[in-house]
From TrEMBL, chain A:
Protein family: Belongs to the binding-protein-dependent transport system permease family. LivHM subfamily.
Taxonomic classification: Bacteria, Pseudomonadati, Pseudomonadota, Gammaproteobacteria, Oceanospirillales
Source species: Halovibrio salipaludis
Biological process, per Gene Ontology: amino acid transport
InterPro entries, per the entry: ABC_transp_permease, ABC_UrtB_bac, BCAA_transport_permease
Subcellular compartments: Cell inner membrane
TM spans (from-to): 12-39, 76-96, 108-126, 160-178, 211-232, 244-265, 272-295
Keyword set includes Transmembrane helix: yes
A Gene Ontology cellular-component term: plasma membrane
Record's protein name: Urea ABC transporter permease subunit UrtB
Sorted UniProt keywords: Amino-acid transport, Cell membrane, Membrane, Transmembrane, Transmembrane helix, Transport
GO MF, one example: transmembrane transporter activity
UniProtKB/TrEMBL annotation, chain B:
Protein name: Urea ABC transporter permease subunit UrtC
Transmembrane regions listed in the UniProt entry: 12-32, 44-61, 123-146, 153-172, 202-222, 252-271, 283-309, 321-341
Organism, as annotated: Halovibrio salipaludis
Main localization (coarse): membrane
GO molecular function list: branched-chain amino acid transmembrane transporter activity
Subcellular location: Cell inner membrane
Biological classification of the source: Bacteria, Pseudomonadati, Pseudomonadota, Gammaproteobacteria, Oceanospirillales
Membrane topology per record: Multi-pass membrane protein
Keyword Cell membrane recorded: yes
Cytoplasm in keyword set: no
Amino acid sequence: MGGYTTSEIATIMAMQGIAGLSLFGVFLLMALGLAIIFGQMGVINMAHGEFLTLGSYATYVVATMFESYAPGLFSYYFPVAIVLSFLVAFGVGYLLEYGLVRHLYKRPLDTLLATWAVGLIMQQIFRSIFGGRGVSADAPDWLQGSIQLSQMLFLSRSDLFVMCIAIAMTVIVAILLYRARWGMRVRSTTQNRAMANAVGINTAKVDRNTFALGCGLAGIAGSAFTTISATTPTAGAQYLVDTFLVVVLGGAASLLGTVASAFSIAQAQSILEFFITGSMAKVLTLMVVIGIIMLRPQGLFTLKVRQ
Amino acid sequence: MTTILRLLGGRSEWLICLGVFAALLLVVLPLAFNGYFLNLLGRYLALAFVAIGLVMCWGYGGMLSLGQGVFFGLGGYAMAMFLKLEASTPEATAKQSTPGIPDFMDWNQLTALPWWWEPFNSFSFTLAALLLIPAAVAYVFGYALFKRRVSGVYFAIVTLSLAAAMSILIVGQQGYTGGANGITDFQTLLGWDITTDSARYVIYYICVFLLLVCIVLGQWILSSRAGRVLIAVRDEENRVRFSGYSVEDFKIFVFMVAAVFSAIGGAMFALQARFISPSQVGIGLSVELVVLCAVGGRFSLLGAAFGALLIKTAEMYLSDLFPQLWTILFGLILLVVVLAFPKGLAGLYELARDYALDHFGSNQSHAALEEHADKRSLHGREEGFLVRAKRILGGIR
């Protein structure tokens, strides 16, 4: 590889690998909510990015409130912000499902259009309230700076934080889906709606809560995002395609697949970025993922579900 | 009045609608607007090409492509590359460090024209390329996707990613493609100044003519046997497959037709807007085009073309007056269309026509209507208006 020695390659790999890890956290956080909404329910939520933005703005508002009313407690605003972001996104998602999405379950492609319209409206509302320019909250001191791993390698605290949140959320979702009664109801609704209804599961209610939970997770992702970049009205929308690809590549309805594909896409992109330009790395990754989806339309990890 | 109604109920209905649409584009609009606005309308008509492609691909074929911008862009870039090369003569670019290549290449320290730009010096090659390249790309992706039975929402996501990949690629390869600014700053087509008012009229008429040709061609395909098979594939793919049809071939064919229509639209856009940029390729435009098609009517070529023109014209006026409200209004229109009348404007027209036939039509017009009952989902005057409205407007999957 073009004039690099082996040890240089190893350092580059490690550096880009660490950068890839933080991208992995971002992808995973984004994809978790979608893995539930698209993976479990088969609903294409084009407004998913806007729920992330909603969470970011909620966090920004909380930070601003703390700054002006309780400056002494500023370092501790984050837990409050995360909970609030979740609740706001959950609530809006709940209303969206009740008012719109549930009427369109029989027409999945129309859901796509309708949620895109909702995303458009949300973006414009954000723009009217917070302006088109990016806003950002000051990170609390324990999130600033970075940890030195070796002479060449640094890991910024905010990246580490995002990754920790991503992993924590994944564990919580896994427990909810596979170890809790709620998850059993969700999975049975996915696998056989009529039968689930017959054994007394209120599938309409399950749908509503599942959709809202997915949106809530996007809200948490948005909250975590404020530590790594400024929030603009279109902040979430730009990750939409990546997120969909992560979920499709991993195989809908497979949480393990989502984690694995988020990891591989993030690492591939980040390592390629060093050797070719960032945009070409992105294009190449997209094309490879599209190629894999063509070869395996059902995704890498799949559950056998009776259609 | 009764005569018109009788004709509207009969077989010649589509021809009448086409005639009205053609008269609107060819006579009314050129009389009502000056060259500047006509040029804007021409750009919107360029989008109508994509909308009618989507009617065939999505409305009739059930394949929702969120990547039509890719083909629109291929056509537009092919046309713009030719025009840019014509504008970049060594005399006109004498100030550059390498005269004779497009200005953005010079800014990006390119010293020679890339080999794949060379053929675009020829107008006939450009015309062939802007039809054949999109068709070939559509064939390759259609073949790969449909043979692997990628359909429904997965098809939508893959085409969406294609649009994203293409626009990122164009932005990234600034020296070869003009980057985020796109290809701009050209004035002549084969030595003919396209910036003058008379040229605007001529190009507008060419655009309308091509659009009408595409609509007639599309209607011909849809009403042929192939069109019937296509509808069957949309509604019951496996049953058609078991009947011995090669389902994929029909899908690939329609996807290619839609791609070629989009490319023609892209070329007309580049010619009238006198620029092409990655935002004409990416996700934003691709999804917007689907929206225009849905609002106009996803089952009607004329409806979709009219819808594209109407919405974009409304946007032109309203987004100036209420820049913030327009986006919200646009979203709300889309929501109402999706929820309440999925057949779009074309569905509203059908409802109005049937209402008029019931209340003002003579016995003859009813006879004509009954003769073509197979084409209509309506029928039954005994039902209440609302029941029928609901069935006509929303009675689809």
